[in-house]
Design brief:
The longest helix has 14 residues. The protein has a six-stranded parallel beta sheet with strand order 3-2-1-4-5-6, with helices on both faces. By secondary structure, it is an alpha/beta fold. It has a single domain, classed as Isochorismatase-like (Rossmann fold), CATH 3.40.50. The chain starts with a strand and ends with a helix.
């Protein structure tokens, strides 16, 4: 996996605002994100951190707000690239992620972060469409309930949508085992 980057999407403090977002799933997601980050850094593999810079006035993810800061699980991170985005896909942000990856000969990436069914899924889909070998670390993501749909249902549907079409869906444990 020497050419495999880790891309962590929107691991931001603003997602801790339960009054704004509502109920979430997968309380172990942050520990899995941290485990992936630690493994990548230990092996000096490329790490990309992306943050969502919301333009909505009431969003806790607005630039300049404490919610825009990365969560504590990313403290001590030594990323190769950090940038913001205002839309769901990390491929449409302040940096041309596709060009950055290709310039470095990176043809595959592991994706984790927040939210499973929005920014993570969209980035995985675009990565797959651009020809990258995408591994989606499902248990290193989480999302929130939507009207009429629970976070757990969205989580399962995202896995089904991505599997064998846009990405390989794996657990953090299986991804880490493949690094060994």
């Amino acid at each position: 996996m020497t050419e495999t980057a880790l891309i962590l999407i929107d691991v931001q403090r603003g997602f801790d605002d339960a009054a704004f977002w509502g109920p979430r799933n997968n309380p172990g997601a942050e520990a899995n994100m941290k485990a992936l980050l630690d493994a990548w850094q230990e092996r000096r593999l490329p790490v990309v951190l992306v943050h969502h810079d919301s333009t909505k006035p009431d969003s806790p993810l607005r630039p300049g707000q404490p919610g825009n800061d990365f969560k504590p699980e990313l403290d001590g991170a030594r990323p190769d690239l950090v940038f913001g985005k205002k839309v769901n896909s990390a491929f449409i942000g302040d940096v041309d992620l596709d060009a950055w990856l290709r310039k470095r000969g990176i043809t595959s990436f592991v994706l984790a972060g927040i939210q499973t069914n929005f920014c993570c899924e969209t980035t995985a889909r675009m990565g797959g469409n651009l020809g990258y070998d995408v591994t989606f670390a499902l248990d290193a993501t989480f999302t929130f309930d939507l009207p009429e749909v629970t976070a757990d249902e969205l989580y399962r549907v995202t896995a089904a949508n991505l599997a064998n079409q846009f990405a390989t869906v794996k657990s953090t444990k299986d991804i880490l085992a493949a690094l060994s």
